[in-house]
Amino acid sequence: MLRVGFAKRALQQRKRYLTELNEVLYHRYACQEREKIDFDTFKVMIEETGLGGHQEGPLRQVFDHIDKDSNGVIDKEEFLAWWPSVVQSYKASSSPMAGYDILVEDGGVSPDEKQKAALRKFQRLHNNLVKFSKQSSSTPQQQGFLSNLFGGKSKSETKSSNLSDIKGLYVCGGVGCGKSFLMDLFYDKVPIKKKRRVHFNSFMLDIHLRIHEIKKTDISADAIKTAADQISSEVDLLCFDEFQITDIGDAMIVRRLFSAMYENGLVMVATSNRKPEELYEGGLNRHIFIPFIKLLKDKCTTHTMESSTDYRKEGVPIEGAVFMTPLSMSSTKKLESTIEKLTGGETLKPASVRVFGRDVPVRGAAKGVASFTFDDLCTKPMSTADFGAIAKEFHTIALSGIPAMTITERTEARRFIYLIDELYENKCNIICTASVLPDGLFSGSGLEGLTGVDLEAADALGVRNADAMSMFTGSDEVFAFGRAVSRLNEMQTREYLLTPHSKLGVPASVKAWVDELEA
Asked: What's the CA gap between 145 and 150, in Å, rounded?
């Protein structure tokens, strides 16, 4: 009885201790004036405590779930009823399927049968990698899924042959259906220590830079094989977001690159808007690329994720706040006024961003805001690396003079799409003047060169004006267009605007501006 009583008292003391810790956490974030946690503070808390903070829609669902009396704030009783259970249950879950179920139960995710069907594929791969992990005595890498929800001997001799036998996963489907969300959930739970999750464009940029450096050292070296060996020594699992091939330079090297990495025992997971057999459709010298498609299908299970829901469209755009149309003196003055609010009236001054040893000029910058014209970024030879560096350096990009693009501006359109990709990946806001809203940015004349695949893609993307497709020569670009429009629509929502930037968080000036817009 004495031992039972002692144990009971110890448990009671521990419970009181944990409650005190939770109360300390609550008071750390609760507004001092009202002793409540509002939604913006809730997002900061979720991110700073390691549970995440990137996807605004699911975070809002969680907040509303906790806010039982629907008064727009979380009080201490509501917080203490929720926080311990969600932290404990999520940490206790050890698989993608279990993590998904917990998020659904806690109100952070809406149940979706199409997502669960894809998740079963991820779960199967997870189980296979768990077996490999146990055999090789790997330890799980603690990354924190909610941080994404809510960035000697040869390799073949040192890796277990079991890893080479594991088939990866290639998940394809329309924009905004949850592919990346599921891959992030898988990535967090998979017990592989050496893993990397990266946007495919960024990965290929890294490969081209490696090849360049290898050739500088030894002109006769097999640079592609050497780059593949370098990657294989760094990771066992590669997870690609937005797998696509639109550049002939990428198309010409991926087969040799991935063949070498697979030989070294690498497992690949990828999300894409395209089925494997549709990659680089209509591209120059595609016959050289075709063997890669067979390799991809041999090494990865393909799952097509059918969904009629684009979750990026769930937020409601703040009309006229981000896309200021049409191009006029009025919209220019409105953009200047917004810049003034975001910088506290500080004068924009010329600046630059260092990218691989060279300076990329910035027309004007102050307080984390950078100003460019469309011509500055899209009519000059700018690269994905340039856009990525800009997106990381500033929390808001002010872009003036975006035109409606036709077939004669195909190159500018591609650069613009790459720019939007990098801004979105880094959760960098954009405010701009444009001739039209996103849905009308890309247009062509006539149906010359359109294939059946192009028209199917247009239908899948909900684009009813097929003329808009004629400016793109390859079907991969059609999907890139659809992705850009989807992202631009999401980037106009309150949820996106208040999503923490990859490096700079949510500045007070941005929060004040958004609050003013909704006042």
From this structure: 8
Strand-by-strand arrangement of the 237-241 sheet: 195-199, 237-241, 267-272, 168-173, 300-305
Handedness of CA 50, 54, 55, 57 (dihedral sign): positive
pLDDT tens-digit series, residues 333-361: 999 999 999 999 999 999 999 987 889 99
The percent of residues in the chain predicted with pLDDT above 70, rounded, is 72
Dihedral of alpha carbons 171, 177, 180, 182, sign: negative
pLDDT tens by residue, 437-480: 988 887 654 333 333 333 333 333 334 343 444 444 444 555 67
Locate tokens 């091939």: which residue?
A: 245
Q: How far apart are CA 244 and CA 309, in angstroms?
A: 21
Q: What is the pLDDT of residues 265-311, one digit of tens each?
A: 999 999 998 899 988 887 778 888 999 999 999 999 999 987 655 55
**Which residue reads 């696509």 in tokens?**
244
Q: Quote the pLDDT of residue 7.
A: 38
pTM above the 0.85 mark? no
The Cβ of residue 349 has, within 10 Å, a number of other Cβ atoms equal to 10
Nearest to 397 by CA among 407, 406, 408, 389: 389
Work out whether strand 267-272 and strand 168-173 pair parallel, antiparallel, or are unpaired.
Answer: parallel
Residue 326: is the preceding peptide bond cis (ω within 30°)?
A: yes
Burial 11-29 (b: 16+ CB within 10 A, else e): eeeeeeeeeeebeeebeeb
Residue closest to 75 by CA, chosen among 24, 38, 28, 49: 38
Q: How far apart are CA 245 and CA 184, in angstroms?
A: 22
Amino acid letter, residue 238: L
- Among residues of the chain, what percentage have pLDDT more than 90? 33
Is residue 395 within 8 Å of residue 501, measured between CB atoms? yes
DSSP 8-class letter at 442: B
Please tell me the distance from the alpha carbon of residue 226 to that of residue 155, in angstroms, as a whole number. Answer: 11
Helix extents (H) in 344-449: 374-378, 384-393, 410-425
Give CA separation, 305 vs 177, 310, 355, 390, in Å: 8, 12, 37, 33
Highest mean pLDDT among 127-131, 230-234, 445-449: 230-234
Phi, psi of 193 (to 5 degrees): -70, -40
Indicate the helix (H) or strand (E) that contains 444.
Answer: none
- Alpha-carbon gap, residue 74 to 36, rounded angstroms: 6
Task: Return the minimum-mean-pLDDT range out of 11-15, 248-252, 304-308, 358-362.
Answer: 11-15
Q: Identify whether the C-beta of residue 228 lies closer than 8 Å to the C-beta of residue 375.
A: no
